[in-house]
Every structure is written in structure tokens, then in C-alpha cells.
Design a protein that fits this description.
By secondary structure, the protein is of the alpha+beta class. Helices cover about 40% and strands about 25% of the residues. One of its GO terms (biological process) is thiamine biosynthetic process.
């Protein structure tokens, strides 16, 4: 449900109704089904979505399909970035990828970081209010669930502009985790995926309004770069431009 709502948040669309379709294995216990239902109920309450119904079938594996419906007078597209726009994102990035590496590869970390990283995997959140209340400032936007590199690449291609990244949208503990485990922090930040943040471009005249909103609502807002003429996504470091390749999720590949 959060993944669907995150898409709506980035487009400035208020979610209203949802439909759930389930394929449940025969061996799935009643307790597990009740826990699954409780999770949907909790998310529906948090985002004020009414579940209209759905469909239930039996199968070999658990399959969850959620469809969301909503309304908006204006939908922010991904192709509206303009030269000299600023690139912003909610965040931070890197915790989801770090959490998976801890869970699947037993990477070492502090207890505090482990809790934070695993929460990013098991209890992700999205920025619905940020999108709904600030969409008029966005010239283009997308949700980042396919990975930050994929999101930036798609917005760059659709807008036919070059995106230059000047700041990595993450925190010190992510850098420390990557360093202690000899991991590429850029890979954690740009290619992790399943991080339901908003990536947007805005006219510089709106940046202070957005920062004020973010501070008031305790949201980490990162100003990570700018839009210019050209094509591609680049990371500006020590005066050099390093191309950021699309390393996120590729659908149907």
C-alpha cells in the first residue's frame, strides 16, 4: 500500500479508495492472515484510505496486489524540469539497501543503526503530506522506489535536461556503515530502491518555502543539485563530473 501511496504523493494526488487482491497459499495460517489484514488496516487508517473490497484466491505463493484510486485537479509530470531548476528530495537514502545487506549478508553494524536500517525494509513510510501541500512548487517529480539513479535518469530523459548532483542525500551513519563493511556508499544511496521518497525539481524562488515546510513538519529535505542544458545524470565531485549510471530496478528486464 505504501508503494502505491508514494506514487500518489509524488504526483500530488490524494488517495481515497483501495482494492486488495490476494493469492494465499493453503498452508498459510489464520494468524498470518489476520496479521496481514491488520497491516492493511493500519496503513489505511494512517493515510485515510477506504478499502472497498477485492479478491482472494489460493496459490502456491503469497501474492499481494493493491490498486489505489484518488483525485487531483493537477498532476505533476516527470517531464517538466527547466534549466536552472533545483533538484530536491525527501530522504535520507541508503538505509533500505543497508538493511537488506544486514539481513541477507550479515553485514556488521551498531545496534542503533541496525534498528534504523531494518525499519526501512520492514516499515517503510512515504511523504504524502509533503507532496499534497507542495505540489504547486514542483516543475517535475517522481517517487524514488525504483532507486534514486533510475528516478533521476528517467526525469532527465523525459525533461531532455542534464541533472547535476552536488550533494549525496544521506547521513553520516550510512557513510560509516559503508566504510566499515567496505561497501560502495554511492551504490547504497543511488541503487538501493524501495525508498519511498519524493524527488522533484523546483524553481529556486520556492526553495525557502519548502525548507520552511520541511522544518515545521520535521522532514529531512535535501537540496541535491541543479538542472542544466544537456542530457544525462552526473555527480559533481572535486570539480569533475562523474556520470551516474542507471543502476536501479528495470521493469520487464
Amino acid at each position: 500500500m505504501v508503494s502505491c501511496i508514494s506514487d500518489f504523493a509524488a504526483k500530488g494526488v490524494k488517495p481515497v479508495f483501495g482494492i486488495i487482491s490476494l493469492v494465499i497459499p493453503k498452508k498459510y495460517t489464520k494468524l498470518k492472515i489476520e496479521k496481514l489484514a491488520a497491516g492493511f488496516k493500519m496503513a489505511a487508517k494512517e493515510f485515510q484510505v477506504k478499502i472497498l473490497g477485492g479478491d482472494t484466491n489460493e496459490g502456491k505463493e503469497l501474492v499481494i496486489s493493491f490498486s489505489l484510486f484518488g483525485f487531483s485537479k493537477k498532476i505533476v509530470k516527470r517531464n517538466g524540469a527547466k534549466t536552472n531548476d533545483l533538484i530536491i528530495c525527501s530522504g535520507p537514502f541508503g538505509y533500505s539497501a543497508a538493511g537488506l545487506s544486514i539481513l541477507l549478508k550479515n553485514k556488521k553494524c551498531s545496534k542503533t543503526f541496525g534498528v534504523k536500517a531494518k525499519r526501512a525494509v520492514f516499515r517503510p513510510s512515504c511523504r504524502l503530506d509533503l507532496g499534497l501541500k507542495n505540489k504547486n512548487y514542483f516543475s517535475s517529480s517522481m517517487d524514488s522506489s525504483d532507486g534514486l539513479s533510475s528516478t533521476l535518469g528517467e526525469m532527465s530523459r523525459q525533461s531532455k535536461k542534464r541533472f547535476v548532483i552536488t550533494r549525496l542525500p544521506s547521513e553520516k551513519d550510512v557513510f560509516d556503515f559503508a566504510d566499515s563493511n567496505r561497501l560502495d556508499v554511492n551504490n547504497l544511496i543511488f541503487n538501493g530502491g524501495e525508498e519511498y521518497e519524493i524527488v522533484a525539481t523546483i524553481n529556486p524562488k520556492h526553495i525557502m518555502k519548502m525548507k520552511k515546510y520541511a522544518r515545521k513538519n520535521r522532514i529531512r529535505l535535501y537540496e541535491i543539485g541543479y538542472v542544466t542544458r544537456g542530457k544525462g545524470v552526473f555527480y559533481q565531485k572535486n570539480g569533475k563530473l562523474i556520470r551516474i549510471k542507471d543502476g536501479g530496478w528495470q521493469h520487464f528486464q
